[in-house]
Amino acid sequence: MRHRTVADLMTRDVVRARCETPFKELVRLLADHDVTAVPVVDDLDRPLGVVSETDLLRKCSVQTDSVSRTPLPHPQEWERAKAQGVKAEELMSAPAVCVHPEWTVAEAARLMMLRSVKRLPVVDEAGRLKGIVSRGDLLRVFLRRDDAIRDEIAREVLQETLRLAPSDVTVEVSEGRVTLHGSVTVNGLIPIIERLCRSVDGVVSVRAHIGYRVDESLAQHGPGATPPAGARPPERTR
């Protein structure tokens, strides 16, 4: 199976800022290019940080408002200090959290969630900026057509990887939701099928209605064996 990579989804024409880019020019960059953040790069085009709308909005949040009608908490001290910045290197969130073009969508998404960021600069082996990928870019994998998902599961997962015959398990896909019907030799194969299907790009969920001919837990104890104490009788479909 070929997973979509960051290189497949990233924006390559990236709007950049320099460390010395002033506040108003940063605001203008976001507005003129209709973006919500820009990476800040050094002279070798290596990302040092990212300036986002949130970083710039701090300038407004700390301004004195003599006619305020809403009793909101005041910004924290570190936010007030950062809001005093007048150029990119003082305003940016740093260091930049970056990914490489060959990373999969799942890897990039996990990093975004772990670091609580909305976008990731994409860099080459030398750390130079090659693109940027956002949450919206990663979500585009879920726009894959149902027939493309079905064909990949049937051909690459079931036939090529698991060596199942086309008649063993059939695949239905609707809005990214996968439903499997059929029968396999042993029950231990069913969770493997489910796991591999979930790993296909664009899959939202997997339901398996798959029967089996041999229960591995019984086969290990020979013909006529009874399940271990406390074990539940095997279900014939999932």
Question: Largest sheet, order of strands side by side?
Answer: 1-2-3
Number of helices: 10
Cα end-to-end separation: 24 Å
CATH topology of the largest domain: CBS-domain
What is the percentage of strand-forming residues?
15-25%
Mean of residue pLDDT values: 88
CATH superfamily of the largest domain: CBS-domain
What is the CATH-assigned architecture of the largest domain? Answer: Roll
Poorly predicted spans: 228-237
Taking the sheet with the most strands, its summary is: 3 strands, mixed
Helical content (DSSP H or I, runs of 4+) = 25-40%
Which descriptors would you attach to this protein?
Histidine-containing Protein, Chain: A; CBS-domain; disordered C terminus; 238 residues; alpha/beta; elongated
Write structural notes for this entry:
The structure is a single chain. It contains 10 helices and 8 strands. Helices cover 34% and strands 21% of the residues. The strands form 3 sheets. It has a 3-stranded mixed beta sheet with strand order 1-2-3. The protein has a 3-stranded mixed beta sheet with strand order 6-7-8. Strands 4-5 form a two-stranded antiparallel sheet. Strand 6 and strand 7 form a beta hairpin. The longest helix has 16 residues. The chain has 238 residues and is an alpha/beta fold. Helix 3 packs across helix 4. It folds into 2 domains: 136 residues, CBS-domain (Roll); 76 residues, Histidine-containing Protein, Chain: A (2-Layer Sandwich).
Write the layout of secondary structure elements.
Blueprint: H1 6-9, E1 17-18, H2 23-33, E2 37-41, E3 47-52, H3 53-61, H4 77-83, H5 88-91, H6 105-115, E4 119-123, E5 129-134, H7 135-139, H8 146-161, E6 169-174, E7 177-186, H9 189-198, E8 205-214, H10 216-219
Parallel strand pairs: 1-2, 7-8
Antiparallel strand pairs: 2-3, 4-5, 6-7
